[in-house]
Design brief:
globular, 2 helices, 4-stranded antiparallel β-sheet, mainly beta, 28 strands
Length: 413
């Protein structure tokens, strides 16, 4: 009987061994599936309870009523005043002003719209001029036309202010953008050289991407003549050109999950288009090498930031102040919106800062300007973009509440 049982036992042992050998493959397959399901922003996240609870802060699914907006909480330097310019602008992001005073507003994940705000007889009207768009964060107004950029393409709507009720058919400018969702949304500007500047962010939190990513490119207004002007740029969602020198200045959001307190986000100055690399993914904040990709690299090989803006502060829209309403000290200073961190336990920023630059292109200081929007470690509002109106006032968008604020100066210059 015992002799007869050996083949059966061997068969059972073989089956068990085969099953055991397949376990690693099954585990790996499950691990790969889990990894594939993990969102791009979570790459590198520690598995601690605190870190696992962190995630990007979504914009409100509905706009906050005007009477509930946190204007009374806003703090400004003496002589300045904040008011609601427009409410019910769901997911308000990019800001541009047309020749006739129309304020164009873009949106991102929540709304997928582009709005136009007009004013007649002292009353403002918010209307949706584009709907069901693919992350239409990037907008620009130039010579009567509205340019709209998605992760995939850039189009132009001509004579837009005369056709707000029904836009003309778009003119396709460029359709060779990668189209990635991670850091694929745009912030676009037309420079003093008459060219269109477009960023292509890294398609990840931290990686060493192909050459078409992590850069700023420029092109002619018909989409021809594409060239790269800056490399090593992880994710810029705000830039502007110095009113006197014409140089491009841009914010850059650094990697996540290295530490709650590192790295610091950057303000950069492009002084040699096409020849400068700003460090990503090898060097962060101009100060230290990345623990994964920085081996064999030196931060001295890359352009150092013009200023550091705080850990995970999320610099977004920025403008040089060229108006005449504000005191002289703000002339040609940068107003920069910091959205505020999501992957930091103690929330801060959610503000607008003023950054001052001397005649040699050196940052001489950074001061709080619009503050008061973090309370009990919760955001009351989250500034996204700023723009200087023709009357010298400053508009600030807030995607958290779906609103636009107007800042004026009524004090003594």
């Amino acid at each position: 009987m015992k002799t007869r049982s050996y083949p059966k036992r061997r068969r059972l042992a073989g089956a068990l061994l085969a099953a055991l050998l397949t376990l690693p493959a099954i585990t790996l397959a499950q691990s790969d599936a889990k990894k594939e399901e993990e969102p791009f922003w979570a790459k590198g996240r520690p598995t601690t309870d605190t870190a696992m609870k962190m995630a990007p802060v979504p914009a409100m699914p509905i706009a906050t009523p005007a009477e509930q907006l946190p204007v009374a909480k806003m703090k400004l330097p003496p002589g300045f005043r904040a008011e609601v310019f427009a409410a019910d602008v769901l997911d308000a992001r990019g800001l541009r002003e047309g020749d006739n005073g129309t304020v164009f507003v873009s949106s991102l994940f929540v709304a997928g719209k582009v709005y136009a705000i007009t004013e007649h007889d002292g009353k403002r009207q918010v209307r949706t001029i584009l709907d069901k768009q693919m992350l239409p964060n990037g907008i620009e107004y130039y010579k009567g036309a509205l340019y709209v950029a998605t992760p995939k393409e850039i189009v132009r709507y001509d004579n837009v202010e005369a056709n707000l009720d029904k836009l003309p058919e778009p003119v396709k400018i460029y359709d060779k953008l990668p189209g990635d969702i991670p850091h694929g949304w745009k912030f676009i500007r037309i420079g003093p050289d008459g060219k269109l500047y477009v960023p292509v962010g890294a398609p990840c939190n931290i990686c060493d991407p192909p050459e078409q990513y992590a850069r700023i490119l420029r092109m002619n207004l018909d989409g021809s003549g594409e060239e790269t002007v800056a490399r090593g740029v992880r994710n810029t969602v705000g830039f502007d050109f110095h009113p006197k020198t014409g140089e491009l200045w841009f914010g850059d959001n650094q990697r996540d999950w290295m530490s709650e307190d590192l790295p610091f986000d950057e303000l950069n100055r492009l002084s040699a288009p096409g020849k400068q690399h700003f460090g990503y993914p090898y060097c962060h904040s101009g100060e230290f090498a990345d623990p994964e990709f920085g081996w064999g690299r030196s931060c001295s090989d890359f352009v150092k930031p013009a200023a550091l803006l705080g850990a995970h502060s999320a610099p977004l829209g920025m403008r040089f102040y060229t108006g005449k309403m504000f005191p002289q000290k703000y002339r040609n200073a940068i107003f920069l919106a910091r959205h505020g961190p999501w992957n930091k336990t103690q929330k801060y920023a959610a503000d607008v800062v003023a950054i001052f630059i001397d005649g040699n292109g050196k940052v001489t200081g950074m001061e709080p300007f619009l503050t008061g929007l973090v309370e009990n470690n919760t955001y009351l509002a989250r500034p996204v973009d700023v723009t200087v109106r023709k009357d010298g006032s400053l508009l600030v968008s807030d995607d958290h509440n779906g609103a636009i604020y107007r800042i004026t100066y009524t004090g003594t210059r």
